[in-house]
Amino acid sequence: MKKEEKSEKPTRRRAAIRYWRISNGCLYARLQYKDETGKWREKLKPITNKRDARGIVEDMRRELTDHGAEMLINDKMTFGQFAPLYKEARLFPAVFANKVKVAGRKSNVQWAYDVLLEYFGSRRLRSIKPRDLELFKAHRLNTITKRGTKRNIGTVNRELSVLRTMLTYAFQNDWILVNPFSKIKGVIASSAETERDRVLGFDEEVRLLKVCVGRRAHLRPILICALDTGMRSGEMLKMKWADIDFLSGVIHVPQENSKTEKSRQIGLTIRVRMELGAIWQRSPAQPHGLVFGGLDSVKRSWNTACTKAKINDFRLHDCRHTATTCMIASGTPHMEVMKITGHTQYKTFLRYLNVTPDSVTTAATRLDAYVVSKQAMETKTEGEVSDAVN
After folding, report:
1. Across all residues in the chain, what is the average pLDDT?
2. Given this model, what pLDDT does residue 101 score?
3. Are 45 and 56 in contact (CB under 8 A)?
4. Those residues with Cβ within 8 angstroms of residue 212's Cβ, 6 or more apart along the chain or in another chain
5. CA distance linking residue 6 with residue 19, whole number of Å
6. pLDDT at 1 > cutoff 60
7. Would you say 314 and 200 are in contact if contact means Cβ atoms under 8 Å apart?
8. Which residue(s) pair with 33 in the sheet?
9. Residue 359 CB coordination number (10 Å)
């Protein structure tokens, strides 16, 4: 009996992968993938030719492998959609733990955030290129401020710095493939900023203190404190009585009040001690109370005082320049002054070290003395040689 031959079953041909599909009359490249839950998803990209579909799908697959589904899903995210996500995660008042900042920001950059949102809001996040950074910079430099003046390069640099931070956050969260700032140099040109070298003269100081009376009496202790300590305005206005040790003559600037987030100590001069002591006598004597009564800003009264004292182009922050210059002129070593003023970078510290007419005159006098002494030594040496020859 012959063995019955097994009938071969016809092999089913595997359907060819289709890299494209038509939806609502439009042609799309089509990628199917499983998300983190194991559910099948589909990603479509518009194309004009079916032959391009495979290459585009392969690009999407590599992007999925290298950066995950988040990058793939949010490829159409606009700057306007991204900005609130960044604001929620980063733009909130600083949070401190054990007097160390652990989250949030100490400085307010809402103004820069609003400018960037207005300019880039409708742009796709991934479409922002290095050229767009340059165009934004040129646009901002060509716009006039509310005061009718030309916009300062320093202001534009601050705006660009905030944009760089935002795009870095987008890159870290796989919303963009690359930060455009990494492909361009010099767009944030700090060297182009005008470095202020305004120092208050002693005669100007006298005039300014004379007008700090009546409605502007609160400016007197602030001005003296700024001139003798070199403290930043924010550090002074946040200073509490518990930060001042009248017995040892020291002001303690805690980390949470310092711009560099490093605590430091500053000595009290006689007149600072007297001014702060007078305020303490009039205060409710609460150690955790604010020394200057919770003032947020003194800009308006400061401008009025400078106008009445006939002092031009002098800001409260310029007192920091003045204090640094005076400390150096008094003979205090540079490194000690840096510790007092809270500078962490020597390059930054040098911006606050200003040359005054007195200092250049002193330098010239020292040079004269040096040249005279050298000439005297040369004359003496020549005379000794002449005597020896004879």
Report:
1. 83
2. 76
3. yes
4. 219, 220, 223, 305
5. 39
6. no
7. yes
8. 41
9. 15
